[in-house]
Amino acid sequence: MNDERLLVQEVAPRDGLQIESKWVETADKIALIDGLSACGFTRIEAGSFVSPKAIPALRDGESVFKGIERQEGVIYVALVPNVKGAQRALDANADELNLVMSASQTHNRANMRMSCEASLEGFGDIVALAQGTKAMLNATVATAFGCPFEGHIDEDRVVSIVRAYRELGIDGITLADTTGMANPRQVARLVTRVLEQVPASALTLHFHNTRGLGLANVLAAYNAGARRFDAALGGLGGCPFAPGASGNICSEDLVNMCDEMGIPTGVDLQKLITLSRTLPALVGHDVPGQIAKAGRNCDLHPVPDYVRAI
Prior knowledge:
Elements: E1 7-10, H1 12-16, H2 26-37, E2 43-48, H3 61-67, E3 75-80, H4 83-91, E4 96-102, H5 105-112, H6 116-130, E5 136-142, H7 155-167, E6 172-176, H8 184-194, E7 203-206, H9 214-223, E8 228-231, H10 251-261, H11 269-276, H12 279-283, H13 291-294, H14 305-308
Parallel strand pairs: 1-8, 2-3, 3-4, 4-5, 5-6, 6-7, 7-8
Helix pairs in contact: 2-3, 4-6, 8-9, 10-11
C-alpha cells in the first residue's frame, strides 16, 4: 500500500440506504453501485443480508448482488448478521463478509438482539462457514468511540475485542464511530493502540458526522497511521437502532479534502460529484454533502459585469 494513499471505501448502498424511508428500486440500487464502481473505489459495501423485517430497505440483497456489473479490482462487500445471512451472501457471490458487534452490550442487544458473547460465538460459526471459499472476512467493532445508551466505552475493551476477532481468524478490522461521538484526540489514541495489533492495510475507520467532527477524525486517524476509511456518497446513512444517529462522512467531501491536501485516493472526484447530485431524486430529500452543492475550489465563477466595468 502506498504510504500516503488514503483508501475510501464506499458504503452508501448499504449503510447509506438502510435508514431511508423511501423504497429505492432494485434497478436503481444496481445503477448506483455500477456508477460508484466507475469512480475508482476498490471496495463497495453493496448490501446486507439481514432480516427483511429488521431492515426492509435492503430486502433485495440477492437481486442487487446478482445484478451489478462487477469491475475488476473492486471488492463488493456484504454485511451479515449471522450464519444464515452469511450463507445468503456467499450464494450471492459477495467478495467480502462484514460482521458487526458492538463494544456496548446495550447497543449490541438493540442492534443484533443478542449479547456480545453470543455475537462472538456466532462469528466463529461464520468463520467456519467461509473457510474454503473465496470470500474475505472483516469484523466491525461498533460504538468503538462511544455508545448512545452507555456513553464512554473503555479503550481496553475495544482493544480486547479486536484481539478476539483476530484470534478467530478474521483479518480485516473496522472501528466504527456509530453515532459520531468520537473526537480527534481520542481517535489518535485508539488508532495508535490498535495498529500495534493490526496492520494499516487491514484496519478501517468508520466515522459519522453526527456532531460535525467526521473529517477532523479522519485526519487524526490518518496522521496516526490509518489508511482505510468508510464513507457514503452524499453523506447518507445512520444506524436505525441508535437514537440521534445521522449520516456517514461524505465520500465526495472526503475525496475533495484529500485532493486539496495532495493525498492520493484514486477516486475520480468529478464523477463522484456528478453521481452525488442524483441522490436527492433517488432518496426524495436533500443530502448532507457539501462539495456537490458548493463545487470544487477550482470551479470558479464568472466575474460580474459591474466588476468588469470598474
